[in-house]
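Batch manifest line 231
LIGAND: coenzyme A
JOB: complex structure
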Amino acid sequence: MDEIHLWSVVPEALSPRTVDRLAAWLSPPEQERWERRGRSRDYLAGRTLARHVLAGHLDIGPEAVELVEDALGRPELAREQERSQLSFNISGTQGMALCAVARGAQVGVDVEALTRRLDPSPPIARSFAPCEREDIARQPGDLRGRRILQYWTLKEAYVKALGTGLTLALDRFWFELDGDEPRLVLPPGPRPHGDSWRFFQRSLGERHLAAVAVKTETAGVQRLVVRAWRP
Ligand SMILES: CC(C)(COP(=O)(O)OP(=O)(O)OC[C@H]1O[C@@H](n2cnc3c(N)ncnc32)[C@H](O)[C@@H]1OP(=O)(O)O)[C@@H](O)C(=O)NCCC(=O)NCCS
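JOB STATUS: finished
ARTIFACT:
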């Protein structure tokens, strides 16, 4: 598909009846994790949103979607044939859960609440490359927090698309934000993860900022379509 779909749901908006209905979609391991996390609405919202979206693509029921997790915790479709065709990723923060889905292209997503304040001093500063740190420092006070979250969401979306998560050093790559869309810059040397990436960044309402990373080698990704799920 030449579209990446970014679906959102508001966990706090789920009524108790809806929570009960959606909980029945969870697999036994998911049920266990949901219990361990104190029946977290955020977990339920993210997982069932992914099931809803994937079920639509696979033309099966949401409870029939089979998921596994790799060694670093990235959820994937269990069946190899489905996995090679559909990639998805989940992110959540206060007030929002997101699921990005792409056909034939590796995808990662991150969302943060704009009210979140990431302190630009160590250790957070170690997550940024020198040019990103300089750019953050150049921003006027009221825009500095937003600029930090712009870089942060892009970095997380990238490492989540790779599946490495925060095991990859975040200051070893950086983003340029002055073009039409964010551009990834990698230092000279081997590029084990390829360099055909495309990044989207979107404000979702007034309170959230999201970034989506897509590996474009195998797909001609054209645009990001944002959709809301109201179960
Ligand atoms: C992936 C990671 C960046 C998540 O960051 P976060 O800001 O806390 O959370 P987000 O809301 O953006 O994303 C969480 C979701 O990402 C997905 N996820 C988990 N591990 C992932 C990975 N390695 N790659 C991509 N996605 C991952 C899951 O769906 C998770 O939600 P769920 O548990 O409700 O299903 C972080 O957990 C990480 O670096 N993990 C990998 C390495 C690691 O330390 N693993 C520990 C277990 S071995």
